[in-house]
Design goal:
alpha/beta, BirA Bifunctional Protein, domain 2, 8-stranded mixed sheet, 3-stranded mixed sheet
Length: 220
C-alpha cells in the first residue's frame, strides 16, 4: 500500500492524554470500518504516567507526582512528557499479513534505523521490550518504549522515544518494570536534535517500515 494513502499527523502543543486516548480508539474503529485512512499520529504529552495491562502497583513509586492513566496497551508503567516523542500508529494488519509479531519487530527496526541516522546506535535486548543503547557512562540504557494493542487487526498505541525529556521524571516509576537499568535520551547522549528533527528522520524511514511490514501480506 502507498505511504501517501496513510495520514501523517503531528499534533501541536501538549496533547491531554484522556482526549488523545479516546480519539485514537475512535480512529482505530473507523479504520476497521473503512471510513477513515490509516494514521501515524505524533504527539507530545504533559507529564504523566500510564499503566499498561501488566502494570504492578508497587512499580508506581510516586503515585502523587503526576496524573496516572490506565492506557489499555501492553506493558507496565511508563512516563510521557515534554521532550518525548510519542507515536500512535494505527494500521490495518488485515491488509498487511495479519502478523502481530512482524509488526512489533518492524516497529522496533524502524526506530533503531531512525536513531542510527541521528548518530545514536541502538538495539533490542533479549527478554526486554523497548529500544536500548549504551549511555555515555557505558551503562545499558533504555531510550525508547513500545506498547501496542491490536483490535480486530487494527493497531493502536505505539512507541515513545526520549528526545530531550526531563529524565528525573522517570524516577516516580519503575520504567517498564526494569529497575536495574537506566533511562537515557538523545540529548543525554549528546545528540542535538529537536522533536521536529527527529520527526523528519522518522518519516524518512517510513516507506521502508511499511515495505518490511507488508512482506507477508501477499501470502496471508
Amino acid at each position: 500500500m502507498d505511504a501517501h494513502a496513510i495520514e501523517w499527523r503531528v499534533e501541536p502543543g501538549l496533547a491531554p492524554y484522556p482526549e488523545t486516548l479516546a480519539a485514537m480508539e475512535a480512529r482505530a474503529e473507523a479504520i476497521r470500518e473503512g471510513t477513515a485512512p490509516e494514521l501515524v499520529w505524533l504527539v507530545e504529552h504533559p507529564p504523566l504516567y500510564t499503566a499498561g495491562t501488566s502494570a504492578a502497583p508497587a512499580e508506581l513509586t510516586a503515585p502523587d507526582r503526576f496524573p496516572v492513566f490506565v492506557a489499555g496497551r501492553g506493558g507496565r508503567y511508563t512516563y510521557h512528557g515534554p521532550g518525548q516523542r510519542v507515536g500512535y500508529v494505527m494500521l490495518d494488519l488485515a491488509a498487511r499479513g495479519r502478523d502481530v509479531r512482524r509488526y512489533v519487530h518492524s516497529l522496533e527496526r524502524w526506530l533503531i534505523a531512525t536513531l542510527a541516522r541521528l548518530g545514536t546506535p541502538a538495539r533490542t535486548a533479549e527478554g526486554r521490550i523497548g529500544i536500548w543503547t549504551d549511555d555515555p557512562g557505558g551503562r545499558e540504557a533504555k531510550i525508547g518504549a513500545i506498547g501496542v494493542r491490536v483490535r480486530r487487526w487494527v493497531t493502536f498505541h505505539g512507541f515513545s522515544v526520549n528526545v530531550a525529556p526531563d529524565l528525573a521524571h522517570f524516577s516516580g516509576i519503575v520504567p517498564c518494570g526494569l529497575a536495574d537499568y537506566a533511562v537515557t535520551s538523545l540529548a543525554a547522549m549528546g545528540t542535538a536534535t529537536t522533536l521536529q528533527g527527529f520527526d523528519a528522520v522518522l518519516e524518512q524511514g517510513f516507506r521502508a517500515f511499511l515495505a518490511e511490514l507488508s512482506v507477508g501480506s501477499a501470502t496471508a
